[in-house]
Design goal:
Strand content: 25-35%
Helix content: 25-40%
Number of strands: 5
Number of helices: 5
Radius of gyration: 18 Å
Structural class: alpha+beta
Order of helices and strands: EHHHHEEEEH
Distance between the termini: 21 Å
Shape: elongated
Largest sheet: 5 strands, antiparallel
């Protein structure tokens, strides 16, 4: 573990995973709209949203996707993680009141502390976001070598 209690590359193995769950509230949607300046009516106006293929309001896709960042920063690999890249596929809507489970799973340990992770968000067992992330994390061996060098 690093000095912030995040995993070092030596601590990880393929298949490790961690999950964060959050219920998306009305306040979350309104605050995300304000912070992101995404005020699309599909998120904020029930009357308009009812006329769309979704038949009602949906949460911002990036609001749900931000839970992936929470897993990376707080659980796996945890504090000290540097987010390098993310690809996302939005596969189903998230509605106000839904509980989103964001799960990160180690797929590959690369060179120089680079790690590839599967990133998935689900609601009631249905995948709503699927993707992969690339992060960079520390190495206890590199830190020890730099102290000796």
């Amino acid at each position: 573990m690093n000095d912030q209690n995040g995993y070092d590359v030596e601590d990880l193995h393929v298949g490790m995973s961690a999950t964060v769950a959050k219920t998306i509230t009305e306040a979350d949607i309104l605050l995300f709209s304000a912070v992101s300046t995404d005020v699309n009516a599909i998120h904020l106006n029930e009357e308009y949203a009812a006329s769309t293929p979704f038949k009602g309001r949906i949460a911002h896709g990036m609001l749900s996707a931000s839970l992936i960042s929470a897993v990376l920063a707080n659980r796996l690999p945890g504090p000290g993680t540097i987010y390098l890249a993310q690809d996302l596929k939005f596969t189903a809507p998230v509605r106000p009141g839904d509980t989103v489970h964001a799960t990160v799973t180690v797929l590959e340990l690369g060179d120089k502390g680079r790690v590839t992770l599967q990133t998935t968000c689900t609601v009631k067992g249905v995948t709503v976001i699927d993707g992969q992330a690339q992060v960079k994390i520390g190495s206890s061996a590199r830190r020890a070598a730099s102290r000796q060098g």
